[in-house]
């Protein structure tokens, strides 16, 4: 039997585990002087109250390695195959840590997804098409799909990405000019400024056109946001109607990712044609 593990940077919620057929490894979040397990003992309301009202800057760290190893080896011991899909190695050390932990076990595969949040959701949906095909076939399919996944988002500020070490100082300075709205993407698993626009509306129009030009609506489109979905709703209204059926739901990103984007970021994750 195939067991799929993702970390909480996938933004797959605990109550969605059955739907996606996954186990979720919670990343750790340090808020002030207390550490929390993402999606387990940290609510959205409390997280944003500390982030916005108290002005705390959260830090993320690796999940419990002891708990993760115990859970995965339980399945290995009963003869199951295990596929681990952590968020991109370009923004987290989870991939390399798990790769080293399980490199001696051929029935365990760790794939560098080179994406996060909705991108991992899309990869899990792909795996579920081929659950009975074996690990080699599934990994081959994932490696074909990974380069096609596009994450595009408009943050309210670049401060959180920069302070969290996900965006260079040069990119931060260039994208923080007055009236400039940067569009952020993943480039080979790393966070980059893809383009800039003067004003929020123009940035949203650019993002909507990008979907029109590039998106393959045969795959899911994951509209995502942090804290407030107001701008996301406006963006969806600008997006072509033919893409709406592929948008299953709006994803309010889990704290492990939201802490790097800050409140009021929004965007799309989709698959290129």
Please give a handful of descriptors for the protein shown.
about 270 residues; alpha/beta; Rossmann fold; Hypothetical Protein Tm841, Chain: A,domain 3; 2 domains; 6-stranded mixed β-sheet; 4-stranded parallel β-sheet; 11 helices; 13 strands; about 35% helix
Task: Give a description of the structure.
- The protein is of the alpha/beta class.
- It folds into two domains: 2-146, Rossmann fold (3-Layer(aba) Sandwich); 148-271, Hypothetical Protein Tm841, Chain: A,domain 3.
- Helix content is 37%, strand content 23%.
- It is built from eleven helices and 13 strands.
- The protein has helices at residues 17-20, 44-53, 65-77, 94-101, 118-129, 135-145, 159-163, 169-174, 200-214, 230-238, 255-261, and strands spanning 2-7, 22-25, 28-31, 34-37, 59-61, 81-85, 108-110, 149-154, 180-187, 190-198, 222-225, 251-252, 266-271.
- It has a six-stranded mixed beta sheet with strand order 10-9-8-13-11-12, with helices on both faces.
- A hairpin with a 2-residue loop joins β9 (180-187) and β10 (190-198).
- α9 (200-214) crosses α10 (230-238).
- The radius of gyration is 18 Å and the shape is globular.
- The two termini are 32 Å apart.
- The mean pLDDT is 93.
Oligomer: single chain
- If classified by CATH, what would the architecture of the largest domain be? 3-Layer(aba) Sandwich
Number of strands: 13
Helix/strand-derived category reads: alpha/beta
Helices and strands, in order, run as EHEEEHEHEHEHHEHHEEHEHEHE
Helix tally?
11
Poorly predicted residue ranges: none
Number of domains: 2
């Amino acid at each position: 039997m195939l067991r799929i593990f993702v970390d909480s940077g996938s933004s797959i919620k605990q109550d969605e585990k059955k739907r996606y057929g996954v186990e979720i490894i919670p990343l750790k979040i340090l808020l002030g002087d207390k550490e929390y397990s993402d999606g387990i003992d940290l609510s959205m309301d409390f997280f944003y109250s500390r982030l916005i009202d108290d002005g705390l800057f959260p830090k993320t760290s690796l999940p419990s390695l002891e708990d993760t190893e115990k859970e995965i080896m339980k399945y290995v011991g009963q003869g199951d195959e295990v596929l681990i899909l952590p968020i991109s190695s370009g923004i987290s050390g989870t991939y390399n840590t798990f790769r080293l932990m399980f490199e001696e076990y051929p029935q365990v595969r760790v794939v560098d997804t080179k994406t996060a949040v909705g991108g991992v959701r899309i990869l899990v949906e792909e795996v579920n098409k081929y659950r009975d095909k074996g690990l080699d076939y599934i990994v081959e399919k994932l490696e074909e799909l990974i380069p096609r996944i596009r994450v595009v988002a408009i943050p309210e500020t670049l401060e959180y990405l920069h302070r969290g070490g996900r965006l260079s100082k040069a990119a931060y300075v260039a994208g923080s000019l007055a009236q400039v709205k940067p569009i952020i993407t993943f480039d080979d698993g790393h966070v980059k400024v893809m383009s800039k626009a003067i004003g929020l509306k123009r940035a949203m129009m650019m993002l909507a056109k990008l979907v029109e030009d590039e998106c393959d609506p045969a795959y899911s489109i994951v509209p995502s946001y942090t804290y407030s979905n107001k701008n996301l709703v406006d963006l969806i209204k600008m997006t072509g109607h033919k893409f709406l059926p592929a948008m299953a739901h709006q994803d309010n990103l889990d704290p492990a990712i939201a802490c790097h984007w800050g409140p009021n970021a929004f965007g799309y994750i989709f698959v290129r044609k």
